[in-house]
Amino acid sequence: MTTEQLEQILHWMKSTDLVELSYKRGGKGFEFRLDSAAAFGAAAFGASSLVSIASPAVGFFRFSPAGAPRKAVEGRAVEAGQKLGLVETEGGPEEVTAPRAGRLVKVLIHEEGAVEYGQPLFLLSAA
Amino acid sequence: MKILIANRGEIAVRVIRACRQLGLKSVAVYSQADRESIHVALADEAVCIGPAPARESYLRIPAVLSAARVTKAEAIHPGYGFLSENADFAAACAERKILFIGPPADAIRKLGYKSTAKAVAREADVPIVPGTRNCVDAETLSQARAIGFPVMVKAAAGGGGKGMRLVRDPERLKHELEAASREAQAAFGDGAVYIEKFIDRPRHVEVQILADTHGNVAALPERDCTVQRRHQKLIEESPSSAITPKTRRAMQEAAVRLARAGRYVNAGTVEFLLDRGENFYFIEVNTRLQVEHPVTESVTGLDLVAEQIRIALGEKLSFDSKRFSQPNGHAIEFRINAEDPDRSFAPCPGTIEGLRLPGGPGVRVDTHLYADYTVPSYYDSLLAKLIISAQDRPTALARGRGALGELRIDGISTTASFHRKVLDHPDFISGTVDTSFVDRLLQEPPNAKDKNERQHSRTA
């Protein structure tokens, strides 16, 4: 690949939401990656083994819907996909779920706290 | 009082400044791509509302309203673009008892859409381009004669030039109607066409209005926005070199009639096409603050954003509605976009490696730029507005040349080099341009002087 071709690809990438692009030659193939809300918080914690779980929206955070018990407690293990809370927005509630199994090392938010998009809510360690 | 600004870039900065001047708190909202944007730093508070794409952040009504809720903002200024002309957004604000700093939803629905606005214009006796709808029948020729040749045949479902035909010769009308109808059928699945008077080499002239909730409607001096490329304005000035005080008054009166008929409140702009005989025809209303509002501020001394906020708060206009109908001096705005005029204005986002802004008497720069700022690729390409004012047009042009010479934006291509060219063009200097000026200018072969200019702008 020439530098010129590479420049063209980089230029094109700037017009997309891609944050990663791999390209293999021998066995062909491609690999793309889109940015997700988690990236914002994650960046602040560098190469830590902890995963930051970020708010999917701007609004007020709640640990559970009215009447339901709170599951997300510091130190507790969680499963992949487990609901950790929700963000009340003007467009309805948006769920916060664990991206993978692990232990909640840190809870960074309190009940009914105002949160912005991408704000870290929990730190998760690999179980 | 706390105002959330549902916008970004230079206009967010402009509104923050107005808030500060009025002693009000400001809340910035931003997407993840705008974390380093200056409006985030300048506002009293800032909230991230979503990822980079506008439809997931600046255009997302629930996200903006949630941001207002968590920050306890009592009012929202929408700026221009994004949600500024969205009637549903204005209605959603009203439902939540949040002041929308713009017209009420009903006024947006009436005047913000071309078809309904034209109906209001007819009622209010505001001239529109003479024409007739869906009329491919035997009556067509007599109707076309009544409108007066040359006429344009246009597709009812159309846009982008498809199904459009210029007809100068009445003999050709039937043939061209059939051809346009076939083309429209192929392009839009609807062969309906209508006829409109052809306005030869028109100018684009618009009137700024301000209406309060007490029934006062002020029409301010016109802005001439004839220098545009594909309907994108590049240069705006006031007053227009093409109209007499009599036409100005007639246009202002028409704009006020339209505003009253549409029960309009807050700032708005009534756009007209102006033909060679100084006849003007209503095109559309922009139910918001315009990019080019500083031109009007320069020739009136008013602060339009502050007026907008006062109107939203239920106050009366701060001036007698007739007081600023005549321009005081001359003002020109040059839009500095992140676009390369040498590559058909292709957007060129990137990092500002060096920045030198011009100054001096009559020079105003509205911008969100700073050195090392990276212009994101997600949003429109406006980087800065250079607004020049002077007591007369020749002095304004001279100041404009000086300021564009001082301006340096390193790292990316901008439209500044294009503006330098325009300022040296005899048609612009004499004030005789029409809306096809930019296209013709771009086709002119560069002469030796242009080459020097281009080299200068590249190193600049």
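qc> The beta strands of chain A are 18-23, 30-34, 51-54, 59-62, 77-78, 83-89, 92-97, 102-107, 114-115, 120-125.
qc> done
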